Amino acid sequence: MDISVVIPVFNEAENLSKLSVELNRVLQSMNKSYELIFVNDGSKDKSLSIIKSLAVENKAVKYVDLSKNFGHQIAVFAGLNKASGNAIVIIDADLQDPPKLIADLYTKLQEGFDVVYAKRKERKGESWHKKLTAKYFYRAMSYLSDVEIPLDTGDFRIISKRVKDIIISLPETNKFIRGQIAWTGFNQTYIEYERQERFAGKTNYSYAKMFHFAWDGITSFSVTPLRLATILGFIVSLLAFFVICYTLYQKYINGNVVPGWSSIMISILFLGGVQLICLGIIGEYIGRILENVKNRPKYIIQDTNIDDKA
Q1: pLDDT per residue over 64-120, tens digit each?
Q2: d(C-alpha 38, C-alpha 8), whole Å
Q3: Can you give the pLDDT at residue 261?
Q4: C-alpha to C-alpha distance for 183 and 177, rounded to whole angstroms
Q5: What phi-psi label fits residue 91: left (phi over 0), alpha (psi between -120 and 50 degrees) or beta?
């Protein structure tokens, strides 16, 4: 198999037929053997029935139906685990990432690269606050992460088989695929493109999901939040030391004892807030350790037309 295309799907019934036509047209024009792996991530609409109909019409169409919604990154991981191609493309089902770019990604991969990612130079059809939050998310990730994650990129990319094999061997329960791909190293490059509006439907990424996704990325590839908590603790301790010195000076040197509880309450609440923030950050990392120690399967397959290879 030359090319596997992994497509995570969650409530994308309106886009699947159009996406399938576009993908088949592009891949057939490349004259390469290929497979389309649709991973149904617990969709509530008719996505699964449409995918199964596509599979009946086209033997290149494969599907993996997960038992529930495990999340976008786990769905991508499940697709990678089933992919058999020498090159693997990851693309979402909303048609914001143009399938025609796959030919350029594959050509670039053949130049000796192991990863070619698609870098957005424009994001059409998105609100200013969505663009703003996305911009600062990628820059915050770059600053906080110990791994250099390319700016303004999503999961749309092509990777070699050896990169895929490394990704599926990583044991972490909390997946951040683009970060893991960056972590592997090897020769990586990019192609710029203009991201289009959704063909149909509405985004499944709420701001809560985006925040959770961002936090997953930061805590998966950086201990910077723990370092910041330590630094914050030192700063607060230093400020508290000066307040203690000032209080003792007022009492024993100036004989000034300020009555009231305001300053005490402010100090207690401030210190308590800082301690809770630090404990929360530590708790996030401990929670990740707990999830990995449980060693539960990352996903459960309910149905598939792909022969089990693992």
Answers
A1: 999 998 888 899 999 999 999 999 999 998 888 889 999 999 999 999 899 998 888
A2: 6
A3: 47
A4: 10
A5: beta
Question: How far is residue 285's CA from residue 74's CA, in Å, rounded to a whole number?
Answer: 19
How many H-runs (helices) and E-runs (strands) does the chain carry? 10, 8
283 or 110: which leads in pLDDT: 110
Residues in contact with 29: Cβ distance below 8 Å, sequence separation at least 6, in sequence order: 103
Cβ–Cβ < 8 Å for 4, 102: no
Cα separation, 32 vs 253, whole angstroms: 86
CA 213 to chain centre: 6
Q: If we measure between CA atoms, which residue out of 5, 150, 24 comes closest to residue 91?
A: 5
Query: What pLDDT score does 37 carry?
Result: 94
With contact defined as beta carbons under 8 Å apart, do 156 and 90 qualify? Answer: yes
Do 223 and 144 form a contact (C-beta atoms < 8 A)? no
Q: Which tokens is 137 given?
A: 């998310």
Rounded Cα distance, 53 and 47, in Å: 10
Residue 263 has a pLDDT of 64
Structure tokens at 24: 């088949």
Joined together, the tokens standing for residue 190 give 């990019």
Angle at 174 between CA 173 and CA 176, to 5 degrees: 130
What's the CA gap between 117 and 188, in Å, rounded? 8
* Structure confidence by residue, pLDDT tens digits, 184-200: 888 888 888 877 665 55
Average pLDDT, the chain: 79
How do strand 153-160 and strand 3-9 relate by DSSP bridges? unpaired
For strands 3-9 and 34-40, give the pairing.
parallel
Q: Is the pLDDT confidence value at 153 over 80?
A: no
Burial state string for 1-28 with b = 16 or more CB within 10 A and e = fewer than 16? eebbbbbbbbbbbbbbeebbebbbebbe
When pLDDT is averaged across residues 17-44 and rounded to a whole number, the result is 92
Q: Are 144 and 218 in contact (CB under 8 A)?
A: yes
